[in-house]
Specification:
about 55 residues, 2 helices, globular
């Protein structure tokens, strides 16, 4: 997992603040994999186990 949490990704400041406010500081492995793709301009289909962090 990322040691810098969500801050090391190209996310808007508003989103980082909202994640922090809700107590999300470190992405789950599935979130980290998707965020590292840096593909924010396209839809993705992600398959992972229940509880893995696909939905916040």
């Amino acid at each position: 997992m990322s040691e810098n949490g969500f801050a090391c990704y190209s996310l808007r400041e508003e989103l980082l603040l909202a994640l922090n406010k809700k107590g999300f500081s470190i992405p789950t492995p599935v979130q980290e994999k998707v965020l590292s793709m840096d593909r924010f301009d396209t839809d993705l289909i992600v398959r992972a186990k229940t509880g893995s962090g696909k939905t916040l």
